[in-house]
Design goal:
Rossmann fold, disordered C terminus, pyruvate-formate lyase- activating enzyme, six-stranded parallel β-sheet
Length: 557
């Protein structure tokens, strides 16, 4: 007889103010949060069919007592910025006498931090969850289950439980094609979690996932959440023709985004395939404009090229670029602020995630800093997050003794943010994107959806989106209205196929403008504390050992 179990899957809140929450932008699209928890709904699909699942996302809705009363088992977990709320969820579940199983990247990297959980599932779920299920069915009340690294066969990964989602809560949905990355960036934990040999799903698997979303009635933005979509170029080039054929046969119901390394610009054939499949944006880790810094962080794939030429080539292939930059590397020069601002302006990337370097658990960087005696205690970031409402590396980075004076790094960082996210500077870059972005003309004649209601030939949904966007700019960012209006007018005249993407970038700025000012204010306070002698290094010394992974008690809330 099949076992029965009520499983409550709980998505932890991201702590504090975060670059990635985009609440203001989500409001424009009538959503509450950017994307759903693909990891948790994939784990749900790996559970026995007789187990009933319910999903609560604490970023979009409340976790009620009735949910916990219903559950036989609580499953949770996520990334480092979700760690404080994961501790709260464990406490809430235990108050209701419910056992908790925690999985995901953070518990895999820092299992010692989660000793309060009844069960810990470490590594990729496909490689270990059967052992957990067997233990649960046998009556086990605790345990640690660790998958062998980098061996999970993701060609056997099931279609995620998209049916558990309240899809209207999210701006877009996601799927995953590959895990792993072939590069060895010192600061990155992806190769520690998933390895350097990217493993990929089959074309049939991917099309089945996409078809499932299509059958549920979902249309629009679909994100390939891969950490490097082109990590296995041979595999992705074999898959994309199947995706293109599916898109054509269904009238192009989806447009795609993903993350990829900058060397995507070196492959004309790959860019052409992504264009034909209807990819519209790529996130690229640029990190630094300085070649010596790129070499020292082992990101040589970003050297020996003109970054501006590479980015503009991607624009001409029909995809706009979002990018990550990092401040705080040992090899940085004193002119890093000027060089980074010049790079951002030259590449004309509006959406720039500029963060402070953070030594993530298990990375090469963390191991090196620990050997050098420069790593701060593991609870340093959590304390700052709880005390100051700071939620990610934009505000909680530099968890180590820096090579350059900390004050100098912070001053450079606030200079970059202040200059990059002035309204005129941001929209100047949007204007360049609007001129260069060569979106394809797609044949949507095979689509079977009823045509949308229109006003003067414009879909009513687009009219409503534009109104919500403009109203929020008028009421929240009046200083941005004129530069936005200029770009929109020029785009309408010169490159109308790029209008939607101008709107997306303007919606991003509803979040990025205020968030950048929040971060600048936080950095200014830290600089003032340094000047006043109030900031002191929490450096771990041999006389004051702190066990890696130990965390403070977190109150239940």
């Amino acid at each position: 007889m099949p076992s029965l179990c009520n499983v409550l899957l709980v998505v932890p809140r991201f702590s504090g103010q975060s670059f990635w929450n985009f609440t203001a932008a989500c409001e424009v699209f009538g959503a509450r949060f950017p994307a759903p928890p693909l990891g948790l709904i994939t784990a749900a699909a790996l559970l026995p069919p007789s187990w009933e699942c319910r999903l609560v996302n604490r970023n979009t809705e409340a976790l009620d007592d009735s949910d916990l009363d219903w559950a036989d088992l609580v499953m949770t977990g996520g990334m480092l910025p979700q760690q404080p709320d994961t501790f709260r969820i464990i406490g809430l579940a235990h108050n209701h006498r419910k056992p908790v199983v925690v999985g995901g990247p953070d518990v895999t990297s820092s299992p010692e931090a989660y000793q309060a959980a009844d069960f810990r599932v470490l590594g990729e779920a496909e490689g270990i969850i059967d052992a957990f299920i067997a233990a649960w069915n046998s009556g086990a009340t605790e345990g640690v289950f660790e998958a062998e690294k980098f061996t999970a066969d993701i060609t056997r990964s099931p279609i995620p439980r998209f049916d558990l989602l309240k899809r209207s809560q999210y701006t877009y949905l996601g799927v995953q094609f590959a895990r792993g990355c072939p590069f060895t960036c010192e600061f990155c934990d992806i190769i520690e979690l998933y390895g350097r040999v990217p493993r990929v799903k089959t074309a049939e698997q991917m099309l089945a996932e996409i078809e499932t979303l299509y059958d549920y009635g979902y249309r629009g933005h679909l994100d390939f959440v891969d950490d490097n979509f082109i990590g296995n170029k041979k595999a992705v080039k074999a898959f994309l023709p199947h995706l293109i054929a599916w898109q054509k046969a269904h009238g192009y119901p989806f447009e795609f985004s993903t993350e990829a390394s900058i060397n995507v610009a070196d492959d004309d054939a790959l860019l052409a395939l992504m264009r034909e499949a209807n990819f519209f944006t790529i996130f690229v880790g640029i990190e630094s404009p300085d070649t010596d810094t790129l070499v020292s962080m082992q990101k040589k794939q970003n050297t020996r090229r003109s970054l501006a030429a590479s980015v503009h080539k991607i624009y001409q292939a029909g995809m706009f670029v979002n990018a990550g930059f990092i401040v705080g590397f040992d090899s940085e020069r004193s002119n890093v602020a000027d060089a980074m601002v010049e790079c951002i302006e030259a590449t004309s990337i509006p959406f720039c995630m500029v963060g402070l370097l953070y030594a993530l658990p298990t990375t090469q960087l963390t191991r090196r800093l620990a050997r050098e005696g420069r790593l701060y205690p593991p609870d340093y970031t959590l304390r700052r997050s709880e005390e100051n409402g700071m939620g990610d590396q934009c505000t909680s980075g530099l968890n180590f003794e820096t090579a350059r004076p900390r004050r100098d790094i912070l001053l450079d960082y606030r200079t970059i943010l202040a200059q990059t996210y002035r309204a005129d500077a941001y929209y100047r870059r949007v204007q360049t994107v609007a001129r260069l972005l060569d979106r394809p003309v797609l044949d949507k004649s095979a689509g079977t959806d009823a045509p949308p209601a229109c006003l003067f030939g414009i879909p009513l949904r687009d009219v409503a989106l534009l109104w919500r966007l403009v109203w929020r700019i008028i009421t929240r960012q009046p200083g941005a209205l004129w530069p936005f209006g200029k770009v929109l007018y020029e785009c309408t005249r010169r490159n109308p196929r790029a209008i939607n993407y101008v709107g997306i970038l303007a919606a991003f700025y509803l979040h990025l403008g205020p968030f950048s000012r929040f971060v600048v204010a936080a950095v200014d306070r830290e600089i003032a504390d340094i000047d006043a002698g109030k900031w002191h290094s929490p450096l771990v010394t041999a006389a004051d050992p702190v066990e890696l992974g130990r965390v403070p008690e977190t109150p239940v809330a």
